[in-house]
Design goal:
Length: 164
């Protein structure tokens, strides 16, 4: 099973709470290519998920994130077998400006305009709550064989307000 991370940096875009923005990436290669997601990727051996989220965010968009708050644990199953376990973080603390890398085009996007139609199908179920400050544990079942991003999303279970 793959252990992976996602990190969602947040900032105030304007005066109103409604103007909050999240840093998303348009993924340029690999799993989920062409779709939007948070920066993130697979954990390396000996690395904690938190360290992974920090490293991947730096590598993909050049942003140094800190004070990561754990917001979710997502379990993705493919054809009944555990495929990926994803740790989700959010943070309002970061240094630097996002920049394009070989892996990602970064973009600050108003929280109300997140392009769910250009993301993984499961994102619409858990990301709005995570961006509102909730915590979530979810299991998402896909069918149809590898690669995961061509499999069909069939069903899920979600639990909110989980303590990590
Ligand atoms: C099934 N539903 C899903 N919904 C939302 N996000 C999903 C996801 N399934 C995987 N993810 C995330 O997608 C990234 C791929 O990881 P990533 O290491 O970038 O994959 P890629 O194949 O490009 O590998 P390398 O770049 O070679 O390491 C990683 O953050 C992972 O958490």
């Amino acid at each position: 099973m793959i252990e992976a991370t996602l990190c969602f940096p947040l900032r105030d875009g304007g005066d109103a709470a409604a103007d909050r923005e999240v840093l998303l990436i348009e993924k340029r290669r690999g799993l989920g290519e062409g779709w939007y997601n948070g920066p993130g990727g697979k954990c390396e051996s000996g690395e904690t998920p938190r360290e992974c989220a920090i490293r991947e965010t730096e590598e993909e968009v050049g942003l140094e994130v800190s004070d990561l708050e754990k917001a979710g644990e997502l379990r993705f199953l493919l054809d009944g077998e555990a495929h990926t376990f994803c740790h989700v973080y959010r943070t309002r603390s970061f240094a630097g400006e996002p920049s394009v890398s070989e892996e990602a085009y970064p973009e600050w996007i108003p929280v109300d305009d997140v392009p769910y139609d250009r993301m993984w199908d499961d994102d619409l179920l858990w990301l709005p709550g995570v961006l509102e400050g909730k915590t979530v544990a979810g299991e998402f079942r896909f069918e149809g064989g590898e690669p995961l991003d061509e499999a069909a999303f069939v069903d899920h279970d979600l639990e909110w307000d989980v303590s990590f």
